[in-house]
Amino acid sequence: MAFELPPLPYAYDALEPYISSETLHLHHDKHHQTYVTNLNNLTKDSALADASLEDVIKQSAGDAAKVGIFNNAAQVWNHTFFWQCLKKDGGTIPAALEARIVADFGSVEAFKQELTQAALTQFGSGWAWLYEDGGKLKVGKTGNADTPLAHGQKPLFTIDVWEHAYYVDFQNRRADFVKAVIDNLANWDFAAEQLGV
């Protein structure tokens, strides 16, 4: 059973003017598809070919002989998750999630500053995350394909800070892209669903 590229959960122009249709066509149809294709080629005729994406990530994480498999599997998962973290007219945090954020970060503003800082200080390619670890909400960042899944943490929300996520629309202005996502596109309802609140 081959891994497949899931469709975007919205139209290609749904996130404009912040993320263009051109960016989504490139990011989803080209970059995300390439990770899916590579993963299928790397796992073909192996025990991992019939495993779930999450199991492939967990079984290949930290294994130098399977670094290619991990990188592509994690990127397929991270991107699929990222698409769910965005929506038109986003940015509003549901009350139950807001209560958890305030309890663990002190305020919504402090949380947003920490998430922004994680996204801006990730050197090179990677991801900024809101995740749950040991019953507490935390913010972190991962390089390249790394994901909280590989560390026993529960991802709730992510921002893709690979250049292909924003370069067409924002050139080198990663800060403007991150602000646009947090203020206008963040699907906090999805994050609350992941948390179960």
UniProtKB/TrEMBL annotation:
Alphabetized PROSITE patterns for the sequence: SOD_MN
Keywords per UniProt: Iron, Metal-binding, Oxidoreductase
Domain Manganese/iron superoxide dismutase C-terminal: 96-193
Catalytic activity: 2 superoxide + 2 H(+) = H2O2 + O2
Keyword 4Fe-4S (UniProt): no
The EC number(s) this enzyme carries: 1.15.1.1
Entry binding sites for Mn(2+): H27, H79, D160, H164
Domain Manganese/iron superoxide dismutase N-terminal: 3-86
GO molecular function: metal ion binding; superoxide dismutase activity
Domain of life the protein comes from: Bacteria
Physiological role: Destroys radicals which are normally produced within the cells and which are toxic to biological systems.
PANTHER family per record: SUPEROXIDE DISMUTASE, SUPEROXIDE DISMUTASE [FE] 2, CHLOROPLASTIC
Similarity comment: Belongs to the iron/manganese superoxide dismutase family.
The protein, known as: Superoxide dismutase
Native source organism of the sequence: Azospirillum doebereinerae
Lineage, opening ranks: Bacteria, Pseudomonadati, Pseudomonadota, Alphaproteobacteria, Rhodospirillales
